[in-house]
Amino acid sequence: MHRFLLYASVPLLTQCSRCKDDPQPKTEEEKLPPATQEGKNTFGCLLNGQVWTASPPAFSPTLTAQYYGAFGREELTIRASNYRPAFDQTVYFRLRGIGSTGRYPILGGQPRYVEWRSRDMQCAFYDTLTSTQVGVVDITRLDRVQRVVSGRFAFTLRRAGCPDVQATDGRFDLRF
Description:
Blueprint: H1 2-19, E1 42-47, E2 50-53, E3 63-68, E4 75-82, E5 89-96, E6 102-106, E7 112-118, E8 125-126, E9 132-143, E10 148-158, E11 165-175
């Protein structure tokens, strides 16, 4: 009888040891691109709690950065588009006065703002004229020689009659 219990328990024990090796599903934050500072051309955030990244380029660039100006008149623009069928969306930052690393508020107007475009026709466009904006961009690397800009961001866009657009845990690592 004891032998029967021993042999019956062996399959059960081997099945339990397999449970430890099963990969755990990733959290939404773990699905985002890593927060690097090497110019890897990555962009992502949690947009209303869901992972949002720039789609891979097919026929046109989906991720661009430009940096120009000097002596207090510097400007950084970032455009990230996701043309995957369920999305067709674009996030656009225009950030003036970005001369060094640091924290820069987004207050829905000059000198820094963010725009949101979506295929959703009812609420297709959030900009400084149609929405209120609150957010921040932290520039963690700005290298004019290597032409790399990296950082983190978060923002909330509110527009009357439309759902809020909220980006959290945003990160970018771009060449300009």
